[in-house]
Specification:
By secondary structure, the chain is α+β, with helices and mostly antiparallel strands. Helix content is about 55%, strand content about 15%. Helix 2 crosses helix 3, helix 3 packs antiparallel against helix 4 and helix 5 packs across helix 8.
Length: about 210
């Protein structure tokens, strides 16, 4: 198994979890004030996610918080779609058993990372702006994370509905797609381990436990 430092560098398992945690923390702070800003399903989804996250931060710690965050991820994010997108062409090469393990391990690793980082940030507010619907049906919710000690950060939340209600499928921080960043990281890891998916899955499963 590779050492901790390369794993941390190559596998940003939470898809930029630190920045995402800041974003959601800011969203939580601003959620009540934004309730009437835009009543589109996409904006409502983000507001609902914010309410769920703040309740978890207030009421839960440790394993209970991690389990709650995983539930939020599974409910409000399209993890299967995001996982397939992140794995890219390697998805088609994986066996059904590997695909199942990968999706489960990726979700667990992200929940673990988010649970560790929530509560470390405060004072941010998030202003939700316009909602744009693309030709493919994806809604893009623009927002700005306002910081007390720095410039605002532009965040876009991509939401789509594949028949199971609207779900978040990507988050762009200052134009950088978290899904595409994860795809690059995963692809590099796979290429560095003989072009095989199995070592990546093993790594994700191990990271989810620590």
């Amino acid at each position: 198994m590779p050492s901790f430092a390369p794993r941390r560098t190559i596998l940003r398992l939470a898809v930029g979890a630190g920045t995402m945690a800041v974003a959601v923390s800011g969203l939580v702070t601003a959620a009540s004030g934004q309730a009437s800003a835009d009543q589109s399903p996409a904006a409502q989804l983000i507001q609902k996610t914010a309410a769920e996250v703040i309740e978890l931060i207030k009421a839960k710690t440790g394993a209970a918080r991690e389990a709650g965050i995983r539930q939020v991820l599974e409910t409000d994010f399209d993890l299967d779609y995001m996982g397939r997108s992140a794995l890219g062409t390697h998805w088609n090469k994986a066996t059904p058993e590997q695909r199942e393990r990968f999706l489960k391990a990726a979700a667990s690793a992200e929940a673990h990372a988010y649970a560790e980082r929530f509560g470390q940030y405060g004072g941010q507010t998030l202003t939700v702006g316009r909602v744009t619907t693309r030709a493919n049906g994806t809604s893009v919710v623009d927002s700005k994370l306002n910081q007390s000690n720095g410039e605002p950060i532009a965040i876009q939340w991509e939401v789509r509905n594949e028949g199971q209600g609207p779900r978040i499928v990507d988050v762009k921080i200052e134009g950088v797609s978290m899904v595409m960043t994860r795809r690059s990281d995963f692809n590099s890891y796979i290429q560095n381990h003989g072009g095989k998916v199995e070592p990546l899955i093993d790594e994700l499963e191990a990271r989810a436990k620590h």
